[in-house]
Design a protein that fits this description.
133 residues, 3-stranded antiparallel β-sheet, 5 strands, 35% helix, 23% strand
């Protein structure tokens, strides 16, 4: 939440944890790099406010950035479950599924490493891939 809201005080307090998680993802990425030679698709289910959704629609075809660690799944059903279980049940909110094709040959994995974290996540079998900030 601190990252999403850009709460600097909380981010300073969490800095050690954020750095540690980033370094662990970097290490896992190096260990798993042979598993990510080909392009693959990941999904993320998320609730957005009407305004954020409109901003997203207005920027169609442009770049999209996330200011936090990005949890995704190779399983579309997992993302669908997150949208269905979303706390955004107000009529002012929209449920969205992001579908992203990741081509390791076109991204700088040294700057933005990612790793399969199925051995470390609560949701077993989700084929969860976590991207660092």
């Amino acid at each position: 939440r601190a990252l999403r809201l850009l709460d600097m005080e909380a981010m300073i307090k969490l800095g050690f944890f954020i750095r540690s998680l980033h370094l662990q993802l970097k290490q896992l990425h190096q260990e798993q790099s042979s598993n990510f030679q080909q392009a693959f698709t990941v999904y993320r289910g998320q609730g957005l406010s009407q305004q954020d959704f409109q901003n997203l629609c207005d920027s169609k075809g442009g770049l999209l950035s996330f200011n936090n660690f990005l949890s995704t799944s190779k399983e579309k059903e997992v993302a669908m479950n997150f949208v269905q279980d979303s706390p955004y049940e107000s009529t002012d909110n929209v449920s969205v599924i992001f579908i992203m094709t990741i081509d390791p040959s076109k991204i700088s994995t040294s700057n933005t490493p990612f790793a399969m974290i199925d051995d470390y996540t609560v949701i077993k079998g989700a084929q969860e891939i976590l991207f660092t900030m």
